[in-house]
Amino acid sequence: MESLIGYEPKESVIHRLDGTTKAIALVWLMAFIYFFNDLYILLAMFFVTFFLTVLGKVWKQVYRVVMISCLPFFVFFVPAIGFSPGFESNKTALFSFVFLNYNLTLYFEGAFYVTIWTLRIATAIGGTLLFIFTTHPSHVTAILMSLHMPYKYVYAFISAFQLIPILSREARVVHEAQISRGLNLDVGLTERIKSIVYFIVPLTLGALDRAQARSIALESRGFSAPGRKTLLYPPHLKVLDYAVLVVIAIMTFVLLYVIVTKGTSPLWGHGCVETACA
Amino acid sequence: MQTHKYVLACTGRPIEMSKASRERVIMSTFLIPVIAGLNFVVGAVVTILRIPLYLDTWATSLGVLMGYPVAAIIGGLFYNVIMGLTLWGVPSIVWGLSQVLIALLTFVFYRIGWLKPKQWPKMVVAGLTMGLLNQAMSLPIYYIAFGGLPTPAGGGVWMKGAIFAAVLAATHDHALALFVHNLPLEFVDKTIALFIAVAIFIRLPERLVLTSARPE
């Protein structure tokens, strides 16, 4: 049960950018991938995100997670939506075949709709993971603190990110320990559900003990002490950050102009389904 | 009761509170990441055990039972934010509403005394109610955040896909197909999650629990 998320310390252009710049770029990406319903624009955004992960030297880690998340999404939705005559937009048949005496037809509209959403989610996950893999947690803390988020919750959020890999490792240890004690997992579903308890009890007690120990340790270091908290890495924009922010500003004007003048599907107009296009 | 001047971590304001209250505030802060982490890890454990369930709300229920409802809600929300930012895609953050609902329902059922192992039929009814209400709340989320697409998350993907496609083909009612496709899984998932939360809660050491009345 390897943890899939976490900061990857590397030397790259993306790593050198300030966390604030990356956060602004991420919010920008999220906004526009949900604005546009155009296959070409979404493909462009997907490939730009991929290129940035290559620049950040984290593309393998990022796209491993993207595949894990998006492949089942695509495989699940194509039969559920693309083949279903009940999906109201399905009108244009691409091809038909007979399966178990049922005549199945793949519709263009359903397949298109699923493709748009898969691309959108793959780009969203890719962009977010690029941010997480290339931004040190203390920079994320600085961003959240600059948003005037109470530091109690900033701490809780950041430590949740740090705790997940620790608990995942612990779960692996518990798994191996229970197997070595004779726990058989090659049994029926009911028995497997019952065996959850053998994992949860040690995991929960260990995690709660750790929380209590951590609370004592941090309190003894003045976690609740009065006074303004200082940051390990306060936000500091450099020339590269300003250059990226200028590009983002220009792209925002261009894309808003495109939306106002040509709508949210400027390139893929023909055959665009009403449910996927504005 | 002796009170001292403390600074409330969330606001930075100095306030008067007892030592017990202060410990409660501190513990709730440190419980938030634990709840988020336990929801995540048990979600991963069920994948390893090839169990077609989510089981990612049980720690939220446990937090409520331990007497930290606010920490439970925030922990549940953080879990969904983390999953939305990493594995599920940003729109999935809205599933955090489900964590809020489960926390509130756990609180209500606990208060009316339904969450006692000796009265397990009431616990089953509570679990089924949670599943039903959660699925009802999910319906607008499917439309707003996922363009009316069903969920591939959790186990039993092919079963859910088959139910969705069958109901859609038979009735041509998209909303009904969306509502029904995940309902069997929700019933089982929320009931088992509730049983696990109560089973763990009654075994917790006293020092970790604020609630005075434990289930018998």
Overview features:
heterodimer, A: about 280 residues, mainly alpha, two-stranded antiparallel ribbon, 10 helices, disordered C terminus, B: about 220 residues, 8 helices
3D structure, described in words:
- The complex is a heterodimer of chains A (278) and B (216).
- By secondary structure, chain A is mainly alpha-helical.
- In chain A, 66% of the residues lie in helices and 5% in strands.
- Chain A is built from ten helices and two strands, in the order ααααββαααααα.
- Chain A has a two-stranded antiparallel sheet with strand order 1-2.
- Chain B has 216 residues and is mostly helical.
- Chain B has a two-stranded antiparallel sheet with strand order 1-2.
- The longest helix of chain B has 30 residues, at 19-48.
- Mean pLDDT of chain B is 81; it is low at 6-11.
- Classes of the chains: A mainly alpha (278), B mainly alpha (216).
Residues in helices of chain B, as a percent range: 55-70%
Q: What is the strand tally of chain B?
A: 2
Distance between the termini of chain A: 41 Å
- Beta-strand portion of chain B reads under 5%
Mean pLDDT across the residues of chain A is 83
**So how many helices of chain A?**
10
Spatial ordering of strands, largest sheet of chain A:
1-2
Characterize the biggest β-sheet of chain A. 2 strands, antiparallel
Principal-axes geometry of chain A comes out as: flat
Overall shape of chain B: globular
Radius of gyration of chain B: 19 Å
Mean pLDDT of chain B: 81
What is the topological layout?
The complex is a heterodimer of chains A (278) and B (216).
Chain A: H1 13-16, H2 19-35, H3 39-55, H4 59-82, E1 93-99, E2 102-107, H5 108-134, H6 137-146, H7 151-180, H8 189-194, H9 196-220, H10 239-262
Antiparallel strand pairs in A: 1-2
Helix pairs in contact in A: 2-5, 2-10, 3-4, 3-5, 4-5, 6-7, 7-9
Chain B: E1 3-7, E2 14-18, H1 19-48, H2 58-65, H3 69-88, H4 96-111, H5 120-146, H6 157-171, H7 174-181, H8 183-201
Antiparallel strand pairs in B: 1-2
Helix pairs in contact in B: 1-2, 1-3, 2-3, 2-4, 2-8, 3-4, 4-5, 5-8, 6-7
